[in-house]
Structures are given as C-alpha cells and as structure tokens.
Amino acid sequence: MRRNGPTLIVAMADPSNIFAIDELKFLTQYNIEPVVTSENALESALSRYYDKGPDLDQMMGELDENVDFSSSDGDSVNVVDLENQAGEAPVVKLCNAILLSAIKKKASDIHVEPYEKSFRVRFRIDGILQEEMRPPLKLRNAITSRLKIMASLDIAERRLPQDGRIKLKIGGTREMDFRVSVLPTLYGEKIVMRLLDKSQLQLDMTKLGFDQGPLDHFKIAIKKPYGMVLVTGPTGSGKTTTLYSALAELNTIDRNISTAEDPVEFNLHGINQVQMHEDIGLNFATALRAFLRQDPNIIMVGEIRDFETAEIGVKAALTGHLVLSTLHTNDAPSTVSRLLNMGIEPFLVTASVNLVLAQRLARRICSDCKVPDEKHAEPLAKMGMTEEQIRTAKIMKGRGCNNCNQTGYKGRVALYEVMPFTDPLKELVLQGASAAEIKTEMIRGGVQSLRMAGIQKILEGMTTPEEVLRTTVED
Hints:
The chain is α/β, with parallel strands linked by helices.
C-alpha cells in the first residue's frame, strides 16, 4: 500500500473485488488504485508486518487471572466435567495458540508434559527441544482433554495409549496435520504432536543438501530397473523426505508405485500408499507380499524391522522390482552387517543391494547473525580436518538474534554418506568382512563419510564444528 497525493495504491490478489475497494475508499477517504499481486506475496507481507504470532506469555497471564479449575487427581474425573472444562474459551484459545505458535516457529514436534508439581509445553525446533511455556497445573486435565477432543480421541480412556490426528486449515489454503500420540504417565497423560506441513515438504533433490557427486550416484541407483536402495539414520534424520523425493522423481505415468508406511505422513498423487495396522495383521511383510501380486514396478517399504520383511524385500529386488526402504543403523557400512545379522545370506545381499545412503540433519547457522568464529587448531584436527583445511578454513557461528530465538541456528542442512555397492565392496561382504573393513574400502573408493560431509559443510560456512560433532561419529 502506498499513497500518491489523493490516491492510495493498494496491492490486491483480486483487483476486481469492488466491495473491498469501496470499503477501503469509505474508511480512508482516498481514491483507490488497485494493482495486481500474488496471494503468496500478500501473505508474506502480512505475516512480516502484522502477524507476530500468539503471545503465549500474555495469554498465560490472562489464564491465571480468569480461569479457576479444580485440579483433579486419579481416575475419578467426571467425563462431563472434563468436556465442560475442555470447552472453556480460555482453554480453547490456549490450545489453538500452542498449535499456531509451533507452526510459526517451524517446530517439528510439540510435547505437552504433566509432572507432579508442574506442567510444561516444549517444542522441538531444528532437532532440539526447547521449553515454550508452563501452563498452571490446574489446567492439566482441561488442556489434555481439549487436545484429545481435537484429535477425536476418547477422553474417558486415561489408562491406555491412544493415537489420533488433528487437521488444521490456515488461511483457507495451507493444510497442517498434527499426528497425536497420548501416553499415560505417573502424573497424567503426556501428549506428543508431530507436525506434518505439506507446503514445507521439499521433494527437489538438489535442494535437500546433496553434493553433486553423491546425488548422481543416488539418481543412478534409483533409476535402475531392479535392486534395493536403503536409506539409514536415526529417527528424525529426514529418511522419509529422502525416500519421498526419490518417489517424486520416479513417479511417471508408465510406472506402478506402491508404498507400505507406518504411518503415511504425506499423500503423494499417483502413488498407491498403504497404512499399516499391526492390530489386524497388516504389517510390512503382509503388505509386501500383497504388492508382489499388484504388478508393481517400484515398492517402498517404510522400514525393514525383521527377517521376514527383509527376506521378501530381497526376493522382490531380485525378481525385477526396485525396492526402497529404511533401516535404523549408524552409517552405510553397518547396514550390511544389520542385514546379515537378520539372517539374509551374504550372496543375496550383494546380489540385491544397489546403494546404501546414511544421513543426518545438522542445524544451519542463522544467516541474520552469522559471524566468524576463531577456533583453535587442536579441536579441529581432532574432528578430522587436515592441516590444509585448518589453515584455510573460515569457521562461522551464529551470534544469536530474535530471528533464531537467540540460538544462533535457523533451519537444518543434511549430511549424506552415499555408498554405491561396488564390486570391491561386494567381494568384502562375501569374504565376511567387518563393518570397519567395509568402511575403509568405502572411503578408499572415494565415498564421503558422514563426518567428512560435515567437515565440508563447516568449510562452506553452513554449520558449526559443534553440530557436526553432535550428529556424527568419528571415522
């Protein structure tokens, strides 16, 4: 919006909206000249100048003054009372504010935790838990019940774990999903909500943090007509995003793609996604068997947890299907050991596996408060930097600002260890070599380990030595 003499120039997504123009003219007493802009640009400007997010501290003060719920202990809570408390305006307002604040701060999880003498809410931001607020203990049952009502869960059942989902529409266009898990603890029910933001799902591989060499290896492996591609790493290291980005690359009209997931995190158009239900016998192994009768080209299995799933996956990879899956191991070489320990024969591993990718997420230095960091050579040498790298390196750190909540970090960068299954590696596996020997051969063959990838990101000024040490182990 800009004034030019008696005329007010107003940016509008819909300049043909004469009602809005007339309203503005009446309110401002200026002539209105509309100019066209996109909805995204408007939303961005509004959030930058007006939307400061819910003020949780102020809301807490109001709650302390206005709300008086008696604290109920044990299981003697009347369900009608719980529903009435959960429906009170301040409680509804606070629960909405917690969800919106988490979205605003780009949190990945919300933890609502009851203790004997306190009640707290924590957000996981960029992989690290931070305390957000401490609501009054007397609101414990009301807040828990309100969140359970939003997730369509049974508020009368307070002794068993429950799982649900909350769907939110923001601004009529942006959809947010919260995956809700309720766990009975000693002093009440702990609720953890995982945020799933479809608009933030990054499926472009070039933007995930891959260097060009490893990206080329990964693309070659997923474009082979058959075989197995395994992605490994701890919980919350971005494995699902990497697999989804591979599926998005492969999702063409001439391919039949089926996925078995627990749970299905994002809906992908053109891909047949199946949600697991262990309680009725629908597990990864059952789904995998069914997929093989569905004329598939590509199969994605959420996780290989047992021998049965691994065996069917290997057989599928050997009979002309491309199989993508994840495992929980520390690095790429130890993935081979895990498959062998599950009971898969070495000759089947070497015949079926195309590539193993290990990954971690390190926090990215905040671009608004990035400053040079004078590091001593000794700790840098200990983490594996060469003398040449130490001499030329410009180590950076975040000073801390309002944009990054005084942490010095904003966003995350992925570290990848991409191990193509070459002939020398296959030979080692057949000879019964250890994970350490496989790792030595992998590095000799030119593959960057996770620690080496981290050092590269430090030299590029993306992250700090502390983050790389936190997320990777020594080579």
